[in-house]
């Protein structure tokens, strides 16, 4: 691995640690605050693009690079985060009480 690849791997590992921590925090608090769905969706699109770039740029017959797997792992973590944001961020409706007898 050359220096740019090592730096890219370090970035992916750092983000790869941050997303599961954010997911656990959201699971514990049952609240999706601090990020919007659009923000997370944009990040998810970025990881998908990075994954595809590693596949398209792979040497034929050599298989995907180790960086591809880091992108894929981060993509999965962000997808979980997006799902949790959607689930915990959905407005909760109070149950409808039956009409009082008059």
What's this model, at a glance?
The protein is mainly alpha-helical and 102 residues long.
Report on this structure.
This protein has helices at residues 3-29, 37-56, 66-89. By secondary structure, it is an all-alpha fold. Helix 1 (3-29) packs parallel to helix 3. It starts with a helix and ends in a 13-residue tail after the last helix.
What keywords describe this structure?
mainly alpha, single chain, 102 residues, 70% helix, 3 helices
First-residue to last-residue Cα separation: 78 Å
Low-confidence stretches: none
Taken as a percent bin, the fraction of beta residues is under 5%
Number of strands: 0
- The helix fraction, in percent, is 55-70%
Mean pLDDT: 87
Helix segment tally:
3
Largest sheet: none
Protein structure class? mainly alpha
- As a whole number of angstroms, the C-alpha radius of gyration is 19 Å
List SSEs in N-to-C order: HHH
Shape: elongated
Strand-helix topology:
Elements: H1 3-29, H2 37-56, H3 66-89
Helix pairs in contact: 1-3, 2-3
């Amino acid at each position: 691995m050359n220096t740019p690849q090592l730096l890219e791997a370090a970035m992916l590992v750092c983000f790869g640690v941050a997303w599961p921590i954010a997911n656990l925090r959201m699971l514990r608090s049952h609240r999706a605050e601090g990020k919007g769905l659009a923000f997370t969706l944009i990040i998810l699109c970025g990881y998908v693009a990075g994954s595809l770039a590693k596949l398209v740029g792979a040497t034929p017959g050599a298989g995907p690079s180790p960086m591809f797997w880091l992108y894929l792992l981060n993509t999965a973590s962000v997808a979980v985060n997006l799902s949790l944001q959607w689930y915990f961020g959905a407005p909760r409706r109070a149950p409808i009480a039956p009409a009082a007898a008059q």
